[in-house]
Amino acid sequence: MSGxxxxxxxxxxxxxxxxxLLAVLLGSSIVAIGVGPAVITxxxxxxxxxxxxxxxRIEAGEVTTYRIIWEIRTPRVLLAGLVGAGLSAAGVAIQAxxxxxxxxxxxxxxxxxxxxxxxxxxxxxxxxALGVHAVSAGAFIGALAASLLVYAASTTRGALSPLRLVLxxxxxxFGFQALxxxxxxxVPGSEATSMILHxxxxxxxxxxxxxxPVLCAVxxxxxxxxxxxxxxxxxxxxxxxxxxxxxxxPDRHRKRLLVLVSLMTGVMxxxxxxxxxxxxxxxxxxxxxxxxxxxxVLALASLSGAxxxxxxxxxxxxxxxxxxxxxxxxxxLIGVPVFITLMRRKGYMFGGG
Amino acid sequence: MDLALDGLSVVTDGxxxxxxxxxxAESGQVVGLVGPNGSGKSTALRCVYRALRPNSGxxxxxxxxxxxxxxxxxxxxxxxxxxxxxxxxxxxVEEVVALGRAPHLRGNQRLGARExxxxxxxxxxxxxxxxxxxxxxxxxxxxxxxxxxxRAFVQETQILVLDxxxxxxxxxxxxxxxxxxxxxxxxxxVVLHDLNLASAACDRLGVLSQGRLLASGTPWxxxxxxxxxxxxxxxxxxxxxxxxxxxxxxxxxxxxxxxxGRHTTS
Lengths: 353, 266
Known about the structure:
The complex is a heterodimer. By secondary structure, chain A is mostly helical. Chain A is built from 15 helices and 2 strands. In chain A, strand 1 (155-156) and strand 2 (159-160) form a beta hairpin. By secondary structure, chain B is of the alpha/beta class. In chain B, a hairpin with a 2-residue loop joins strand 1 and strand 2. The radius of gyration of chain B is 20 Å and the shape is globular. In chain B, 43% of the residues are buried. The interface between A and B is large, with 36 and 39 residues.
């Protein structure tokens, strides 16, 4: 592993690793777009995508295939990649700012808070002025409220207790899930069970080109903003006292970053529901390769998180086809053993190799 | 640059941790803060590196009140070695040292050539150059303190405050660490537990007890048998160090040996 670390440590090495991950992401996406009820070879998929992007001729007999590729599967795979990247980057940031290896948007209750907000808006028809973005806005407000609640409940006299934070977060997330279920069941005639499953376990069934622009903007800008704050994340992970002595107000930065992470989580949850474990394990895997510095960890975590989620989604819609598994089933089945193995590794301390 | 605490008071949850503390470290002086556990030493220091805001009074660096400066600006004037030892992420030594430049850099701006040289030089001076690529979690206590000191040095401040920097270090590393503090021309305020090391390392000492400054002055002024008995509750004999002439304390374990040389039994 130290060999890989040495490679990633240099600027050129990091760029090469990111380029390789991008290539893997592109390849994975093309494969994932091709696989489904109608299997299309990667070469055909690439040709159709090229035709869609660069303008090319599609024969009359190929229109169905083209539609499947461009209108159904491509937005779904893009959605998966974006959510995977965003959840992983959000996990990196949260782990640094609460200095806890067990934290991520799901564990701290941000995701379930977001789903309460999203369901609340859907059911009540509130925030109608925001039109199609009402659900995202509701989810953002839910995530923000959840993060403030969890933060306030686990802080005593300005000092944050990492253990209390995780325990509070876990408890709160069950509370939010319960609240969300009550809202869903209170609406007569709705398909309550499948709706609750979507919000608690996640799914990309709602993918369409329409949802992508806002999500894409929030995730890309969010990851860029976190990357720009990478040194502050480094400093904050050294502890509050040290951060103060290095000119960074831990409290102010933590609040600002929580708002940013809540925004990212809210917008993602509004489209895909709450997905567990991705934000938890991908940052750890990235740290094993990249060390602790957040510029590198953020770059690797978001790219590998995108690859991971593309494959998770592919598994979710093919393993028991024609039915679909909720995403949370796959991420937990992969995430739990990976997480336990990581935690049991000798000498593993929050990224130590 | 001078560092002055002026009438500093800190109250937390109704408990007065520091009361009306005034103490001055002149430019280039090493000033030690000593006192029993809970006497407010660390609390006073936290006000200097801005982890805590005093309820009244002020910290002055040069002519400037710390409270009027931004956190960034004051971190370019005051560096700190806090007691917060546990870094949980496995940064490499050179990464931690480089973070000392954070107050001078914007966003994730990269270190310039001069700054990289500065980091190399600090690591060389502190003898941790060979550890540059090692993870900080694998270091011994003495090595880790030197890494943190290197980080403080590259911060290029004129004032350095240290909170019990010799804790958990063996004797050799304690002596080494304190000798690094001298001779760099920095104004140093250091909290120390070991009175003999404090006497050897500091130009002036301040003695805190229950949040109040009981005495301050040169080690010979301050470290008297009466004061040590009053503040720390131990009997000590003060003798001059045979080589340096600094006052040194020899402790007698209870039951005390009385003046006639016989053990008391009461």
